[in-house]
Write a structure and sequence with these properties.
With 198 residues, the chain is of the alpha+beta class. Helices cover 14% and strands 29% of the residues. The structure holds 2-oxoglutaric acid and fe (ii) ion.
Length: 198
Amino acid sequence: MVIPISNVDGGYTGTGELTFHSDHKWTPTPSSGSLLYALEIPTHGGDTYWLNTNLAYEALDEATKERIADLQLITYNPFLRDRNAPRSLYRLDKTIPLISPIFPHPLVRTHPESGKKHLYLDAATEVEIVGLEPEEGSKLIEQLRQHLTQPKFYYKHKWSVGDIVYWDNQATLHYRQAFDPNERRVLKRVSLAGSRPF
Ligand SMILES: O=C(O)CCC(=O)C(=O)O
Ligand SMILES: [Fe+2]
């Protein structure tokens, strides 16, 4: 299936910033990789960044690596949530009912081909660490996110019309810069099936 990534002609991805994420992380088998093909590019903004989650993992101190080694992380589907519920980066309020199924994945993911370890965490999606008290879990997530989003871990891609970028969702996060809503930005995406993270 080819998905339009566009702010015009009914495209639904808007013109705002998209924080660092990997695609379909809230599903049991998140996409293994995606391709983006650029058809129309704005004159300013709309760059896409890719972040190396193996570098980010390796740069953690040993105590943190040990602490997070066996933790499981729930990432809540941002498209399937009660719009009236308060937004949070960590699920602190347990009185808000769940409205979508949850699929915990390892916080440290092993790449199925390279065997390398990756920090498997989005920058701003609502999450929860299984088995930790909310205060402890949210503190740890905040610390990991501060570490994760350092410029030394990512590459910034300035698009040209005709570019095709392939990325590995098992090894990277991506971010999209905002751009002027009066400009057109049109890309097409194909996402590849993935396997259960371990
Ligand atoms: O618009 C972009 O550059 C990236 C959008 C995105 O997150 C995706 O296609 O998965
Ligand atoms: Fe994405």
